[in-house]
Amino acid sequence: MDDKRMRQRTASEDRRTVERLVAAWLAETERHDAGAARKARTGWEEGALSEAAAQDLATWVTARVTDTGFTEDEGPYVEGPVRITPGDKDTVHAWLRERGHGV
Fold it and tell me: Could you read off the pLDDT of 35-77 as tens digits, one per residue?
């Protein structure tokens, strides 16, 4: 596979990761602060999260990493509604930085 096709595939995979995690973040935010969730959802749907929403997403995804790569003996399993790997966190942070957010 050439570099251009590999980048397109990776960008598509990254976008799916971001969409999956943003949906989980918005659902959780809705349970705790409906107004903030509404504003964040509007920004997401319009393609431009506010800086506050971007920071909340970055913090949320960091705090919710559920697949730490540790075995049961090495560290805690973090329960969560969606599986989030350290790589997923990095993908979301990179996606936010690409859009000008200071993460």
Answer: 999 999 999 999 999 999 999 999 999 988 876 665 565 555 5
Half-sphere exposure of 48 (CA within 13 A, CB side): 2
Task: Identify whether 94 is part of a domain.
Answer: yes
Question: Is 28 a residue whose pLDDT tops 80?
Answer: yes
Model-wide pTM > 0.90: no
Domain assignment of residue 11, yes or no: yes
Q: Is residue 103 part of a domain?
A: no
Report the domain count for the chain: 1
| Residue 14 lies in domain | 3-98
Scanning 33-50, the segments in alpha helix (DSSP H) are: 34-46
With a CB cutoff of 8 Å and minimum separation 6, the contacts of 54 are 96, 99, 101, 103
